[in-house]
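To the team - iron/sulfur cluster complex, inputs and output below.
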Amino acid sequence: MNNLFIPQTEIDRQYEIARSLVSETAGKKACVITFGCQQNENDSERIAGALELCGYEMTENPDEASMIIINTCAIREHAEIRALSEAGQFKGRKERDRSIKIGLCGCMAQQSHRREQIYKSYPCVDFVFGTDMHHRVPEIIKNALTAKKRFSFITESKHDEFGIISEGMPVRRENSYKAWVPVMYGCNNFCTYCVVPYARGRERSRRREDVVAEVKALVEQGYKDITLLGQNVNSYNGGCDFAELLDECASFDGEYRMRFMTSHPKDASDKLIDVIASNKNVAKHFHLPVQSGSSRVLKLMNRKYTREQYLEKALKIKEKNPEISLTTDIICGFPTETDEDFAETMSLVKAVGFDMIYTFIYSPRPGTVAANMEGQIPKAVSNERFKALSDMENDIAQELNDKFIGKTLRVLSDGLNKNGVPCGRSTQNKIVTYDKFIPAGEFVDVVIETAGAYALGGKIK
Ligand code: SAH
Ligand code: SF4
Ligand code: F3S
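Output:
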């Protein structure tokens, strides 16, 4: 395990390279474009931190930037297509100005068949780097500024052998009161539909003291909403179990909320459920992806729990934490999914009563077990199931949200929403709108007067 941690001498070397670039990058701008999950958002914050260290000024507008990095996602085909079309957009600009450098990184870059495609069909992409190369961004940027040829920084070892942890590189946080803190990287679960274990390598945990120190510093800087990240946080083993880590991170003085993403149902422990109930700084929200309500499909997905086991866990979470919101992910149209299987998903959803469901249509991922299974489901059938599930969930969410009417919720303000209405989030992560502007990052009590399926509305108390 020890060789997982990048030695301090290597980190120091990257700082040195970054400093050596500052005169060359003076007055230049860089832009990071992000697709995918919170893990990728956080990776982009680290890439942006390294770019700043190299002397770039960060911009959100790629047209102003001379260094553009596209951080990609490979979870579904749609995500890959979006990232590729983003890369393609820079073709014309790149032809006019060769000094602009375009890099592509993230989960797509980690896959050899995609790298080949990028190499052949996207000549505007100058360099690619993998998901375990973030600490080497200064070196990569130096290469990009000097190399005459296109290049890549990729660990070529097998997916179950790659993966590192680096500490001490800068992070440029996008938000001044909400923050992501990774606790572990990679995934060993190999759900048969999923690309993540191939794109992110094997599971590895950050040291407990490093995570706790990062959270403590964030709380001291005034962060109010901090999410511990991992593909399967319950596998955390950096010096304690995840429940203890969460409890410790939520033990500092002051009003703030600790959240976590994501928990695998097979090992979401009683201890974790108890920590959520007993620690006031832990948000009352549990995202517990079920994927399917059919034990037969769950087995084919390699999820390692049955419908009954999931139901028992979900109901226990609700019983121990009556004010909690429970959300989930569901895949429609997994290979061989029958109408009966789907009916079981519908009935499970009803039995649990989810506050929100992220519903996805199954997308075959090259190299995964499910992509080669017989019995792929026609798109039209998956679409129908998707719609039926969304319609039912709408009614369930409405019913659950109606129960908040008349109650007072503590809300962390997000300032104004895109329609100019004051809004924020409750501990359950519900969107709440209200009558008076409150600066983003401040807590406020709101008496709930109206409820929709996706948001609550009220007046400040
Ligand atoms: N680590 C998390 C999930 C990460 S991916 C977990 O295990 O819960 C987020 C969600 O994307 C998954 O929960 C799943 O519902 C969906 N997903 C993953 N692969 C998919 C695929 N091939 N097609 C459709 N949806 C997929
Ligand atoms: Fe993918 Fe399963 Fe790992 Fe989640 S637990 S990242 S769904 S393989
Ligand atoms: Fe996408 Fe990679 Fe996250 S595939 S969902 S960016 S781990």
